[in-house]
Amino acid sequence: MLEWISKNNPFKKQMLLSILVMLCLFLSFTAPGFFTIDNFLNVLRNTSMQGIIAFGMTMVMIAGEIDLSVGSTVAFTGCLTAWIVKALLALGVGAPLAVCCGILGALTVGYLLGVFSASVRNRFNVPTFIITLALMTALSGFANLITGGFPIVPFPMWFNFIGGGYVLGIPVPAIMLVVVFFIVNFIMTSTTFGRAVYAIGGNMEAARLSGIKVANIKMAVMGLTSMLMAVAGIMVSSQIMSGTASTARGWELDVISAVVIGGTSMNGGSGSVKGTFIGVIFLGVVVNGMTLMNINEYWQYVVKGFLILGAVLLNVVQENRKLNSVADSKNDNNIKSAVIG
Q: What does the pLDDT read at residue 1?
């Protein structure tokens, strides 16, 4: 029954990794300053926040859902963190406790936003595309309401360490990216929960009949992913040392692009966190290379658009071939049965 849990397609990852290596070799000759340790660390730092969200989005898309509220959730939770810190400081609470409360508040609200989306999905059978699109608009409004349209700047200087600090010369956001990767990859490859996510995306009714609590799994997946968006929101507010409603606009496209380029099916049931990690780095290298080559920012959007279109088309072609292969196999078996009969 769980044949769709051939979740990882090694060929896809190897092909993408090969393209990434060739791209790096090309850019090392054409983009000044590309092939340096500092630049590679810069790529990791610049992709870290979107990458952290992309790992969660991989779970969501494997489960057969999608979340379009990425940018607004990041902005809202970042602003919420700043708002809580500012309010507590005004009440005389010490900065360390105020920051901790702000972070915990943002993470909690982030998780609850994902649970809310999944609950509406489970209760009313509304596509998450519509739910999260509505949530995206609402959260953008809330972010502007709590900031009044101006940045909130309440943070102590040491708060910048989360989004802009270094440990042994390595950016803290890059370290967080790798840590979250290992955690989410472990969940998806080595736990019953991860296997249930693949099962739901592959065949939801079969998963339900096998005893998997589909509604609970979807709430957990959406909640965890939204909480990772809150993590990114906290990192952004730390990096710019303020809560700003205009941050992270358009991040949903970058996140979904990385997931799809990494080999996760738009229809659910297949994909891997490892593939998404390669997709995140691939997009980061493309943008970094074009920036070093002084290519216009608008052309960068064009290139990213065609990359995601190409990845989706390749995914569709491969899935159609797989379906045709299964259909041909069934027809052959029917013919053999008829001949024997």
A: 36
